[in-house]
UniProtKB/TrEMBL annotation:
Localisation per UniProt entry: Cytoplasm
Listed name of the protein: Phosphoenolpyruvate-protein phosphotransferase
Molecular function per GO: phosphoenolpyruvate-protein phosphotransferase activity
Gene assigned in the entry: ptsP
Coiled-coil intervals, chain numbering: none
Domain PEP-utilising enzyme mobile residues, every copy: 164-234
Matching InterPro entries: PEP-util_enz_mobile_dom, PEP-utilizing_PTS_enzyme, PEP_util_AS, PEP_util_C, PEP_util_CS, Phosphohistidine_dom_sf, PTS_EI, PTS_EI-like
Species whose genome carries this gene: Undibacterium hunanense
Amino acid sequence: MASFTLQGIPVSRGIAIGRAHLLRPAALDVQHYLVGQEQVEAEVQRLQAAIIQVHKELQAIWSDLPQDAPTELGAFIDVHVLILSDPMISEAPLDIIRTRHYNAEWALVSQIDELSAQFDEIEDDYLRERKADIQQVAERVLKVLTGTAGNAMRSDGIDERSANMIVVARDISPADMMQFRDVAFTGFVTDEGGHNSHTAIVSRSLGIPAVVGMGNASHLIEQDDWLIIDSDAGVVIVAPSTLVLEQYRERQTVLMKARKKLGKLKKTPAITQDGVEITLLANIELPQDAAPALEAGASGVGLFRSEFLFMESSGQEHKLPTEEEQFEAYRTAVTAMKGRPVTIRTLDVGADKPLDTTEHNILNPALGLRAIRYCLAEPQLFLTQLRAILRASAFGSVKILIPMMAHGFEIDQSLAMIEQAKAELRKEGKDFDANIAVGAMIEIPAAALSLPMFVKKLDFLSVGTNDLIQYTLAIDRADHEVAHLYDDLHPAILQLLQMIITAGERAGIPVSICGGMAGDIRLTRLLTGMGFRELSMPAALLPEIKQEILNTRLDALQGHVKKILRSYDSATIRETLAVMGSITPVLPTLH
Ligand code: PEP
Ligand code: MG
């Protein structure tokens, strides 16, 4: 096969080499995980048993048909029995389990997808419509399978099979990404998505190379094709030649060595050459991310995206985590950080993170009932979360961060809800930190333009640059068609950032950045030069940002920072940034 290259949007770092593992859209509606070698036969039997069960059901329906039932009804059932017995359904998915280690549901829908695509190409209308019959039969089998789920265990994530698989899909929802966390895939390639879509965020936090917004990669790439992801360049090379493969393997080794060297900075504080300390914090999605964040040298958690706790059950009947389950999750993160601060953001659902995958806001989800708006509309759910966070605050240093605030009454109502949760806990004799700090995400331009309202009532601010850019520039952060307009150096963004840090300094309250800009090494000098002293990012990016800080002299940058903030010309901004980046007070001294 001839090699070709596809260009997309880089959202993560590094190089991945592996075989394509195609996920068709329907495959995303069911649970999908890889089963370990020793469980393959049990999984095969589970699917066989489900097929037999559906056979029995169809036979029972047949024999229960009333005497006067129309003959077509019997004929339909016959068609379904025939479909079920066809090797395409009764055998091909079993082979998929054996060869690719998919769980039974996933194997079945993959096969159905394949068949559906073939049916779509049939000219004959009657035959083409038989696709619906196949899907109905598959639904029946899936229903039985769901009832028997749990017979097979997921593979433990270090399965060698997944270790060189690159997932290729049209799109992967954040909820589905959460399932993939348990499986050590080597990389992700999606047709859709933007720089800071939540799918991109999860792959970045897993430290896995990924390229999104590839257009139609999932149609051009075939199952098991060899792929190279050059995530820094946003490039995917399909079916590379041996020579190219060798070159990339070498680059991969060099990168790995460099990363290992950076690991030595773990305990070094992030202090600039002129003595300014920058606090580097980690963004996490699940409590189990806290320990690796500490290991990577984080001084705390600057953003715990708690909504991911609510999203782990995609494809299943949706069940929200209880107060007890949330408390355990928050406490796990808090104790893992050993006294370092953990900033727990309250539920930020909506937009590209719907609570329920069946939920569709067809109007404009990004401008809809998202984050704090959702929580204030569902006070019981909000209260449950606040109680759980407060209870976890008795085990370490916790801060509450409220997303998507824009109105004064949202601040007041949130604070009132926190007081109510405290009063309830007090009454019940449960411990919590009575002085817990409460802060707001500044990620809507309205908030950035009315900062006095925020600094008066809150203890800290955290800038969500991903949304601030989305809402200021009016571009959907998840839409690859407008990804070229996503510009973190747009003068409007820089002006807003400057306003936020200045307002925080004047009010004497800390301001951090927890959006993607904080982990972008191109911007480290600019942001610290502007006055930001706390940056929160995916743990995997911490070492390189720390090295950049160690190599920075803030006093030498001031003129350039001023020039950038005064400029309304994109070229001047970029040129000045490049000059700032090239000022090297001391060469890296890592041994
Ligand atoms: C942001 O908007 O920058 C942010 C940190 O929050 P999220 O990416 O989860 O919306
Ligand atoms: Mg946000």
